[in-house]
Amino acid sequence: MHDTTLTALAAGLAAGEFSSRELTQALLARIERLDGELNSFITLTAEQALEAADQADAARAAGNAGPLTGVPLALKDLFCTEGVRTSAGSKMLDTFVAPYDATVVEKLKAAGTVSLGKTNMDEFAMGSSNENSFYGAVHNPWHRNAVPGGSSGGSAAAVAAGLVPAAMGTDTGGSIRQPAAFCGITGLKPTYGRVSRYGIIAYASSLDQAGPMARTAEDCARLLTAIAGHDLRDSTSVARGVPDYTQELDAPLAGLRIGLPREYFGEGLDPAVERAVREAIGVFETLGATLREVSLPHTHYAIPAYYVIAPAEASSNLARYDGVRFGHRCDAPADLTDLYKRSRAEGFGEEVKRRILMGTHTLSEGFFDAYYKKAQQVRRLIRQDFLDAFDEVDVLMGPTSPTPAFDLGAKKDPVSMYLQDIYTIAINLAGIPGISVPAGFVGGCPAEGRPAEGRPVGLQILGTHFAEARLLNVAHQFQQATDWHLRRPAIAEETL
Q1: Among 40, 115, 128, 151, which one carries the catalytic annotation?
Q2: pLDDT at 325 (0 to 100)
Q3: Which of 131, 192, 249, 465 satisfies CB 3.0 to 4.6 Å to 431 for a cystine?
Q4: pLDDT in tens, 174-198
Q5: Annotated catalytic, 115?
């Protein structure tokens, strides 16, 4: 049961081939047996999961089951979950038990899904490798010495390893798409405002967006249908109807206009990754699509603009964790100043401190206009680049990341780490949707005894605002024509 898709599991539950309790027990056993190699979970909620599975089975017996009733999944440890520790991967919130559910969690519960636990992540979602977690680094299922990507690396690793069929992630600058690419799964970052941010611990409020991570585009379509929608508790949530995102999956791609941004195929892109991505894009020509080169001229400003805006918003959002109102409190403070200093110094990790310092400097008197205001003006230009491109083409395609998954500890310089997000960050600045799908492999993977497969490569597909149905259709048709999404690391093939 572990080596299949969420869609197939939902069909099996509907057909009575197994119960939600049986499925949940099987996956919990896999997590207990195998996650020691990956460290993809922070908290396992076995008791609550079995209770929810029993409720799902009862609902099905009573004829009240929905499309996702009884399907297990996992939640990135950034989603507040009532009665469950919600740590954001940080010592600062190590003992925090959420008193309420995030809207995404509410919607998933209402749909009848079963949460197995909370997945590991870069602290407060700040990172591209999942090495910044207070609970230790997550290991890539394809190669234990490689990173899974970040910040949603725990969710990506758990799905790739067959511990869960799907998981929720969040994406501030590529944190769903990049780990999806590194782990060989499918990850969707919706349009900003498509999914409520209420109850999601904030990193950068104008950039954060929740989305699904699963094996296929079809799985992501089912999950997005469940979690999307307007929420009065989130002022940035868009009042717009939610379609059934599975309805257009089988639409043909004849006449689809695909744009290839020249800035995504230049200096810094690993040649092997480029070959894999171009071969994947060639599949769309056989499906009736046409290709043309386009330009996003302000792409090279995306990383500097992001690392002004995001840390500034992080500095504001994380100011609440002061040892008084929220979070870790130091022992025996000498006075109030000592309480503030030591609580924050002890509670936050190095990367979070670095970004708080950058953001505080950016927002300080004399620097706001020079940095923050200028970065927002650049953001507007980046957004316009995409809008102009979508006047000419239907979707954009390119690599999700310039390299495959790199080794743990390989990137000591923060700037080199930041450059891993060069193809993903602009999408968050513009607020448009994007999806990463498996599109090949680079190199060998002798540690796993699978030299022909190596490390996964992701193809990123971008659309204009609220074009999730089109992106899912395009991704699904690609997956109908290829088998990259069917490949599994050795750990996923292990049976108990």
Answers
A1: 151
A2: 84
A3: 192
A4: 999 999 999 999 999 999 999 999 9
A5: no
